[in-house]
Every structure is written in structure tokens, then in C-alpha cells.
């Protein structure tokens, strides 16, 4: 029997184990927890808590990327983890909330509508990750998944606050769910607000508008938030139509 020689191990410092940044991934984990919490609450029939949890997930999702940029802790792991968290919080959770609250009364059409939304969120996130370096930073291509989740969950929250049963508005819930799902994978452009410079001076009416917005949210948070995201989800179509009219007018001239 031949003698076995010990294998020579060469240490390569470039292949050393890389750590994971805690701070930004902590916010991502919090967003993921809120999405999972929304799913659990929807399964238990606590739809208002589920809808609120989706909105809280939006806050944490908005913070993780900003914290990573401010602390210079961006990483490929964080980007992938954030996408998976978004899929749960803004893809699976809102579709399940809408289905359990209203869409299941529609039978097969109900779960198909919920699946259209869920698939739209997955495709939207996949397209965003693959076109991150080539798109115009000022605009999103398709409705962002957090905005789509706010549209669906906000509708549920508003109806519950006015004691409207899901069975009474199941067709409207179906339309909003399908609209949000298809708008996410559309080519309609939505303003991203990424070019806003908070260090620049603004007119007085801008501060007054912000104060009015806070007052509206404090008075009726569900109506104010849902109304904002309804306007935002329609803004892309309005801007696209306005651009089409301008191009046709310029061609005619």
C-alpha cells in the first residue's frame, strides 16, 4: 500500500473569510420581520395589524440603504439580502393580506389576482437588480414594490378603518391588486426622489406643504398614506401621457 503524503496547504490572504456589516443588515432584518409578522397576522384574521406592519417594513427598508451609504458599509451580501427581504415584505405579504381579506371570496380569480401581484413583485425586483447600473437614477422603471405594497395594504387599512368588509369590495380589491402587480412590471417611469438635495434652500410653500402633510397623516394616517400612494401610482401614467402629447405636438409642428 503506497504511503500517503500530507497535502500542502497554502494560505491565500485574499480568500480570507469576509464579515457582514451589522448596522444596515439590522434594518433589513427588521423589515423582513415586519413582512413575516404581516403574514402571520393575516393568517390569524388581524388584517389591520398586517397592513400597518407592511408600512413599518417600508420605513426600515428605506433606512437600510441610506445607513449603508452614510456609513460606507455597502456590500453585495446586503444588496441580495435586501432584495429577498423586499420579496417577503412587499411581494408575498401584501398579496396574502389581500387574498385572506377579500380575494378568497372570488375563488380561482382571487388567488390568480394575488399571484399576479406576487409574480409582478418578483419580476420587478429581478429587473431592478439587473438594470441598476444603466437606468436613469431620477426615475424608476415600473412602480416600486414598496409603493405597490402600500397601495394594496393601504386600501385594506382604509376599508377596515371605515368598517367595510372585504366581501363588499372584493372586486375593487381585485382590480387594485392586479393594477399594482402589472404596474410594477410595466415600462412606465415613476419619479424616484433621489435627486432631491436636502441641503438646498426651498421656497416657503414647500415647508408649508410638508407641515400640512404631517397634519394630514396625524389626523388620519391610513387615508393620507393611501391617498399619497394612489396619486403616486397614477403619476407615472400621467407623466407618460403628458410626454406623449408633447412629442406628438412637436412632430405636428
Please write out the topology.
Elements (H helix, E strand, L loop, with lengths): L21 H22 L3 H24 L5 H26 L6 H23 L8 E3 L3 H17 L8 H15 L4 E3 L12 H16 L1 H32 L1
Antiparallel strand pairs: 1-2
Helix pairs in contact: 1-2, 1-3, 2-3, 2-5, 3-4, 3-5, 4-6, 5-6, 5-8, 7-8
Structure notes:
The protein is an all-alpha fold and 253 residues long. It has one domain (20-252): CDP-alcohol phosphotransferase transmembrane (TM) domain (Four Helix Bundle (Hemerythrin (Met), subunit A)), CATH 1.20.120. Helices cover 69% and strands 2% of the residues. It contains 8 helices and 2 strands; from the N terminus they run ααααβααβαα. The chain has helices spanning 22-43, 47-70, 76-101, 108-130, 145-161, 170-184, 204-219, 221-252, and strands at 139-141, 189-191. It has a two-stranded antiparallel sheet with strand order 1-2. The longest helix has 32 residues, at 221-252. Residues 11-16 have low confidence and may be disordered.
Structure in a nutshell:
The protein has helices spanning 22-43, 47-70, 76-101, 108-130, 145-161, 170-184, 204-219, 221-252; strands at residues 139-141, 189-191.
Looking at how many chains there are and whether they match, the oligomeric state comes to single chain
User: Which structural class matches the secondary elements?
Assistant: mainly alpha
The figure for the number of domains is: 1
Terminal-residue CA separation? 92 Å
Just give the CATH class: Mainly Alpha
